[in-house]
Structures are given as C-alpha cells and as structure tokens.
Amino acid sequence: MKDSWPAFSVEDPVGWLLYGRMVTELPEYVLVATDGERVVARGFSVPFALDRPGRGALPDRGWDQVLLWAFSDLRHGTAPDTVSAIEITVDLRRQGEGLSGRMLAAMRANAAARGFAELVAPVRPSRKQDEPLADIHEYAARTRPDGLPVDPWLRVHVRAGGRVEKVAPASMTVSAGLEQWREWTGLPFDTAGPVTVPGALVPVRCEPGQGYAVYVEPNVWVRHRTG
Length: 227
Prior knowledge:
alpha+beta, Aminopeptidase, 8-stranded mixed sheet, 6 helices, 8 strands
C-alpha cells in the first residue's frame, strides 16, 4: 500500500520495537480495508489501562506512551479499560474518498464490540506540516466559521463525535546521527538549531557539534465515546 509517511517518521524506536507485535499479539485490534485483493486502508489500535495509579490523564508522551502502556499491561495481565488509535492510513491512490472516516468508524465499532466505552486518539494533524513553525496549541484550537477544526484530520474526528482534549507535546521522538538525517531528508544538516524538514510537524533540532539531530513530534489527543 502506498502511503505518505516521511522516511524519518517510521524510525521512532518505540514503534520500531512494538509495531509488529500489534499484528501478532493484538490482531483483533488491527483493521484492514480491501478493494478486491488490494489493501486500500489500514488501522491499528491497542487496549490499555488508563484508570490506574500513575496514569489517569492522557499522556504528554502520547503515541509512544500508550504503546508502552499497552504492551506493559499485556505482559502483566492488567485489564485494559480504554482503546487508543495508533494509526489510520489510506492508500495514496484512494485518498479523498472518505476512507479515513470509515476506518475511524470501524475502529470505534471494534472497540465497542470488545466492551470499551471510549476510544482515544493521538492525532497527527494532517496539515500541520504546512506550518511547522506554528504553535501546536494554537493550531489545534483553530476552527472554521462552522465551529469545526481547520485541520482536515482533526475535523474528521470531531465530525465523528470526538472531542479535542489536549496536546501531546512529545508524542513521538526520533533521534539519529546527522548522516542518517541527510539520508532520510536530502538536507545538509550542517547548521546548529531548528531545521525545517518536509513532512515534519515541527522543526528538527540539529546539533552538528554533537553529531546528532532530534525530532520531537506533537500530536493532539481526541477522545471518542464508542456508543
């Protein structure tokens, strides 16, 4: 399936470690849409325990943290009480057909069928990459005259009944040496400070004197009732 994820975004170490385990250990939370024999969309989610000591609030470390919580709970036999979306992706050739909304509806229905009252989602706003210098809190709060979010992917969630709850300022972290960043992006990465990278929601921090650069991606938490 052809997707639009930038090369660096799949190098988050938490995702690298746990993505395949979702398929093998939590297959009932993996959804696939097909057109004949061709996959046209996919959706990954994980169950986890939010209402327990040390948790309670949706985490600032968003996407990374819910993956870690989910597999920690699975390992320790902790009963989950919430489902978190991890990914909804539509084939590039089929975007604009409403498949993302249908996948979100299917994910909510799957959570409900498994007895969960809530689905939460650390949403990656789809147009934030066009404004990497914009403050994520201000961006997430932007609305159109009809009251719906300006961002298209946030708008799909709110139209489906979701409520924008908070920003996850450090939802995903990718760190690597400068040569690796040059390979991923085609950029020189030779100047200290923020580097605007295509596909990144915020600038990448470059430290040429130390030989590395770090990308810390913010997401936006949206909460859905499944019923």
